[in-house]
Amino acid sequence: MQRGITGTFTTSIAGGVQCNAFLPTALPPKPPLAIEGKLQQRLNAALLSLGRLDAITTLLPDAHLFLYSYVRKEAVMSSQIEGTQSSLSDLMLYEMDGVPGVPIDDAQEVSCYVSALNLGVQLIREGLPISFRLITDVHRALMTSGRGISRGPGQFRTNQVWIGGHRADEAMFVPPPPTHLADCWAQLEQFINDIPEATDPLIKAALAHVQFETIHPFMDGNGRLGRLLIPLILVDAGVMREPLLYMSVFFRKHRQVYYDRLQQVRTHGDWESWLLFFVDAVSETAEQAVTTAQRLNQLRIDDKAKLADLGRISGSATQVLDALFGHPVATVNSLTEQTGLTPATVGKVLDALENQLNLVHEATGQKRNRVFVYRQYLDILNQD
Predict the structure, then answer these.
(1) Are 7 and 24 a contacting pair, CB within 8 Å?
(2) Whole-angstrom distance, CA of residue 239 vs CA of residue 237
(3) What is the DSSP letter of 328?
């Protein structure tokens, strides 16, 4: 399908030099997408994988525990694309007022990603459409602490930015000037909300992601928010009950192809190549999530069976293991709060889980303020 450039250029000033800023054409693409043959087959495969992933939320005995950890895995991966060094363990330590092994700003940024996603889903469930209010509220939550607090939380940018290159007139790409952002977003908002016509939700998520990254409406956080937009659109459309489709691992693994496909849409109108890449990302990401959920569920079954060897404390050990399944990095105090057991009982169980069953390990080497890690659980989550 030959479309040519999918927008127009307008003169702007950035960094004291004149440059050509890009104004994207409103969605949907014209002429319409050519969805047949190979693309249709791979789109169908992606939808099947999405269905299996959505079913996980009803098939797992405690799906909310899987969601808790899986959301945090995505937060870590999406933030690492933007340069943070925080790991899943660092995030979980930070969330229980521990000291992460990375700069505190890194852990704060990842924690804010979790808050932003949760807020977006909450607003959608309260009936708010994906709109200017929702997107700015989510951005404010994303940038509410750490380095982001000085980067205009919840506010569209007021200056010209550029991507790639040390000068705007030699940049790889120059997004729209700030004076055009309101119109560009209004057009995208209408498309997301099926005005004037409905679009298949998965295709909508794919196209809206490109358009959002092209508009680049904020000073910072556009990459993370653009990736968040994908599961939010699918939850809003009722395709998924929980926001479990996270693309950051795939996009990071194929980073150069990802950037090339985005640019080919802008320069050549090649939406079909982007869609092929996107639906493959959906299929692989969804299947990996299903496999991870199944492995975690089997780990829980296997490890619970081992607790019978602990004799009189096996009942308490079951409570502690259930708590670790939801929060695989924990302290005696946090496990005491979650289980209602005494600190002495929790300590005794943790010693047994570490020394007799080798299910957890103490990570600090200290006598006080010890941190215990459910090692195999994190290994499964961190496999990517």
Answers:
(1) yes
(2) 6
(3) S
Q: Which residue has the tokens 């209408």?
A: 190
Residue ranges of the chain with per-residue pLDDT less than 70:
1-2, 61, 97-102, 146-148, 150, 384
Q: Go through 107-119 and write b for each residue having 16 or more CB atoms within 10 A of its CB, e for each that does not.
A: bbbbbbbbebbeb
The span from the CA of 233 to the CA of 175, in Å, is: 23
Q: How many domains does the structure of the chain reveal?
A: 2
> What is the pLDDT at residue 57?
79
> Residue 146 has what pLDDT?
64
- CB of 300 closer than 8 Å to CB of 70: no
pLDDT of 156: 97
- What is the rounded distance in angstroms from the CA atom of residue 135 to the CA atom of residue 5? 27
**CATH code for position 215:** 1.10.3290.10
- Token digits for 272? 């079909």
Q: Which domain holds residue 364?
A: 294-381
Cβ atoms within 10 A of the Cβ of 282, count?
26
Tell me: do 175 and 107 sit in the same domain: yes
Do 29 and 174 belong to one domain? yes
Cα(53)–Cα(60) distance, rounded to whole angstroms?
11
Q: What is the pLDDT of residue 39?
A: 95
The structure's pTM equals 0.91
| pLDDT in the model for residue 250 | 94
